[in-house]
Amino acid sequence: MSADAPASVVLFDLDGTLTDSAPGIHAGFRHALASVDAPEPTEEQLSMVVGPPLIDTLRGLGLDEDAAQRALAAYFERYDERGWAENTAFDGIESVLTRLQDRGVRLGVATSKSERFAVRILDHFGLSRYFEFIGGASNDGTRRAKSDVIAHSLTNLGIEPIEHAEGGTAGVIMIGDRDHDVHGAARFGIPTVYVEWGYGVDGESDDAAFTASSMDELATVLEQNTAAVR
Fold first, then answer.
1. How is residue 7 annotated by DSSP?
2. Are residues 116 and 165 in the same domain?
3. Residues 41, 72 within the same domain
4. N or C: which end of the chain has fewer CB within 10 A?
5. pLDDT confidence band for 53 (50 / 70 / 90)
């Protein structure tokens, strides 16, 4: 998949794309498992936990529904208290956002993180001002799949989310660090720039339209594939 025409809207993932949130998420994940007497997570499990909906990860570990929900509640309790702040903005990301904004490109966020935490984190780092809309997962869990969050963000940006099978959603590009970003966007025919400084592993970038290993590379890809609405 590639960008056939310049995009006027760019959607950003949050964790692993805009900010390095792994410390708080990993600590919260350990706390969540301990709260239900589950085994300490392995390094491999920790490497995969950032990005996808946490309830899916907990279920994937074999926890029954009651234990998974209790672990999730424990995670959010700790994250609300201090985990959200165990986080740093990636060096150079504000420059990328500024350049896009100065060129008149519309910006939004589509993250599987709870929307209220996404807003809080971006407010904390002074990045909210770049985005017309910050979209995330719903608190009740009904909106957690990446494709659903992308549709939510598009709708709130005034863009109809049209699935790829029906022609796709033109004029949008996604930026993310995991394969669920790539595949969630692909549902709507949206190409993705896969950033290599995040939490993905080998093979996750295979279906991305572009890859970027640095902020400079990301800025170049976006300059070549975006344009302001005329």
1. B
2. yes
3. yes
4. C
5. confident
Q: Is the pLDDT of residue 140 over 50?
A: yes
* pLDDT for the residue 1: 41
Active-site choice (4, 13, 64, 102): 13
Tell me the CATH number at 41.
1.10.150.240
The last residue of one of the domains, among 85, 104, 122, is 85
> Does 4 have pLDDT greater than 80?
no
Which residue's structure tokens are 């490109």? 105
* pLDDT (0 to 100) of residue 3: 58
Is there a single domain that holds both residue 37 and residue 51?
Answer: yes
pTM of the predicted structure, to 2 decimals? 0.91
Q: Is 64 a catalytic residue?
A: no
Both 126 and 220 in one domain: the answer is yes
Cα dihedral 99, 113, 1, 133 sign:
negative
Q: How far are the Cα atoms of 37, 71, 100, 105, 212 from residue 228, in angstroms, in the given order?
A: 52, 44, 9, 5, 22
